[in-house]
Amino acid sequence: MPYCTQADLVSAFGDDELVQITDRTGAGVISQIILNAAITKADLDIDRRLRAKGWTVPLAISSNDLRELSKDITRFYCYQVPTEVVSDAYNRAIKTLDDYVKGTIDLGLGNPASGTISQAEIAPNPAGISGSKGADNRIFTQSNLSDY
Questions:
Q1: How many beta carbons lie within 10 A of that of residue 107, not counting itself?
Q2: Which of 22, 25, 56, 117 could form a disulfide with 31 if both were Cys (CB 3.0 to 4.6 A apart)?
Q3: How confident is the model at residue 113 (pLDDT cuts 50, 70, 90)?
Q4: Distance between CA 80 and CA 62 in Å, rounded?
């Protein structure tokens, strides 16, 4: 699920701008290919940062904050030569994502370690296997493996 949609982008920036920045053939319509490629690239940028925070991506949930950031990142990728305003919005969005990873801001997504995502996605022990040997009753010890 993309973090923003074409409808979100049209609502934020208008049809005219989206036609202007995606229509490379002069057809006078929004290029679905260019727009979808920009959305995908923005999602990858976001996913890389969310993965660093501990999320399993892509997220099945979203927040208004994340959608807003996604719109600015997607818009940047639609431009062949971004304007200063578009570049500034992109840089702010990336900084905000980085601040989220550092824990200095909250995007309203919850916390991946607090149970918002399942324990099975966090813990690498899906079968629930546990060992019965402790430090005092190990079969293979440092001393009996020293010759190998």
A1: 18
A2: 22
A3: low
A4: 28
Q: Which amino acid is at 87?
A: S
Under DSSP, is residue 129 helix (H, G, I), strand (E, B) or coil? coil
3-class SS letters over 88-126: HHHHHHHHHHHHHHHCCCCCCCCCHHHCCCCHHHHCCCC
What gap in Å lies between CA 93 and CA 64, rounded to an integer? 13
Largest CA distance in the chain: 77
- What does the domain layout of the chain look like in residue ranges? 6-122
Is the Cβ–Cβ distance between 132 and 80 less than 8 Å?
A: no
